């Protein structure tokens, strides 16, 4: 890529460097939103803008088959050199840290290594910043697997009966299947979205209320974070892990948090900053994600579309409790989605989807 020479010089000095040694030829290697196939000369990347980045790779095993994608986040400091090495026995990256002396030795040899380092593709940086801004080191520390690497194909092991999560139904066929869960330390430590959205000891009337409006569950989750906006940061982490890291588990969490926010009407006024940030992030996320992924396989309906439609309706009907800036922001996003996907949010479209509306049953009188 042709770039300004002064900028290139500054990036060489101030940018981060990833030295990735012994990477097998033919590895699918990526940083942020771009991937390459490595040749035998590849030894890493240079001129990496300081800040958070996502490094991913997919090598080929001894049979020549591509392995599932693996990735990890790293926040590059100014002029930092991160050194990693391929472990041929594990057929994976080694996360063993190099000593300060070894890093200094590599730093002194950078002029020799320079020809083997690919420059960071600055043309993707603006889009990457949109995806990653708002993700803090504290949040990554909370969400990243204990073993650091984020795998598209989790390593599973049998789960004892006592540690299984409660399931809604268990038929005879399911009972015969082995219960599997990710090996300890390998899965994203995502925030649990409660299956039941009401407080403990809720009356039937309260259960109906909280089933229609998820504000209680949303604000309970928000209170578990260091900062309220971290709930949107978690969505961003999950989106990157899905879009670039190919993690379906991350996508499901992204979708669950999205639907929770969309179904929280009373929280709109109390959590204005969260919803404003949510609308901004959705403007970016829904530009990239394939529409097919937003369709619920079981219900056969676009869950994300129905969720966004509910949110737009809640904002529209909020009256003066929601300020005009948030309403304008929602209107712009609605027009963007109508243009990109052909989604309809008009009154006619609302009437067509009435069959999808939840059925409200008042059990209070029957239980008296």
Radius of gyration: 24 Å
Helical run tally = 16
Strand count, sense and closure of the main sheet? 5 strands, mixed
Mean pLDDT equals 85
Strand order of the largest sheet: 8-7-1-4-9
Estimate what percentage of residues fall within beta strands: 5-15%
Q: Would you list the SSEs in sequence order as H and E? A: HEEEEEEEEHHEHHEEHEHHHHHHHHHH
Structural class: alpha+beta
Number of strands: 12
- Approximately how much helix is present in the residues? 40-55%
How far apart the termini lie comes to 74 Å
Q: Give unreliable regions as ranges.
A: 162-169, 357-368
Give the overall form: globular
Describe this structure in words.
By secondary structure, the chain is an alpha+beta fold. It has 16 helices and 12 strands. A 5-stranded mixed sheet has the order 8-7-1-4-9. Strand 7 and strand 8 form a beta hairpin. The model is unreliable at 162-169 and 357-368 (pLDDT under 50).
Features:
alpha+beta, five-stranded mixed sheet, single chain, globular, disordered C terminus
Give me the secondary-structure topology:
Elements: H1 5-14, E1 16-21, E2 28-31, E3 34-37, E4 44-48, E5 51-58, E6 70-76, E7 81-87, E8 92-94, H2 100-108, H3 110-113, E9 118-119, H4 125-132, H5 137-143, E10 150-151, E11 156-158, H6 172-176, E12 180-182, H7 204-212, H8 215-222, H9 230-243, H10 248-262, H11 267-270, H12 272-288, H13 303-316, H14 324-341, H15 347-352, H16 364-367
Parallel strand pairs: 1-7, 4-9
Antiparallel strand pairs: 1-4, 2-3, 2-5, 5-6, 6-10, 7-8, 11-12
Helix pairs in contact: 9-10, 9-12, 10-13, 12-14, 13-14
């Amino acid at each position: 890529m042709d770039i300004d020479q002064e900028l290139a010089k500054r990036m060489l000095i101030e940018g981060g460097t990833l030295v990735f040694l012994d990477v097998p030829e033919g590895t699918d290697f990526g940083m942020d939103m771009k991937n390459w196939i490595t040749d035998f000369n590849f030894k890493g990347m240079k001129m990496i803008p300081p800040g958070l980045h996502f490094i991913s790779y997919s090598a080929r095993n001894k049979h020549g088959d591509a392995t599932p994608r693996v990735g990890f986040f790293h926040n590059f400091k100014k002029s930092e050199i991160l050194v990693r090495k391929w472990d041929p026995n594990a057929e994976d990256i080694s996360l063993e840290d190099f000593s300060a002396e070894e890093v200094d030795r590599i730093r002194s040899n950078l002029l020799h290594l320079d020809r083997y380092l690919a420059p960071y593709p600055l043309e993707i940086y603006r889009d990457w910043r949109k995806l990653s801004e708002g993700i803090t080191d504290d949040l990554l520390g909370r969400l990243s697997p204990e073993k650091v690497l984020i795998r598209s194909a989790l390593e599973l092991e049998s789960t004892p009966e006592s540690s299984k999560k409660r399931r809604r139904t268990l038929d005879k066929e399911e009972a015969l299947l082995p219960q599997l869960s990710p090996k300890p330390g390998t899965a994203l430590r995502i925030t649990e979205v409660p299956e039941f959205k009401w407080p403990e000891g809720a009356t039937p009337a309260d259960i109906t209320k909280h089933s229609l409006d998820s504000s209680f569950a949303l604000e309970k989750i928000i209170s578990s974070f260091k900062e309220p906006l971290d709930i949107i940061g978690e969505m961003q982490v999950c989106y990157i892990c899905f879009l670039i890291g190919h993690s379906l588990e991350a996508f499901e969490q992204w979708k669950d948090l999205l639907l929770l926010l969309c179904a929280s009407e009373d929280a709109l006024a109390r959590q204005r900053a969260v919803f404003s940030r949510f609308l901004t992030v959705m403007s970016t996320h829904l530009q990239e994600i394939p529409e097919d992924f937003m369709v619920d396989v079981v219900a056969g309906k676009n869950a994300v579309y129905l969720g966004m439609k509910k949110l737009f309706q809640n904002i529209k009907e909020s009256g003066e409790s929601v300020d005009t800036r948030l309403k304008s922001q929602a209107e712009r996003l609605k027009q963007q989605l109508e243009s990109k996907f052909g989604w309809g949010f008009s009154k006619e479209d609302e009437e067509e989807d009435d069959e999808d509306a939840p059925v409200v049953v008042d059990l209070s009188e029957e239980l008296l």
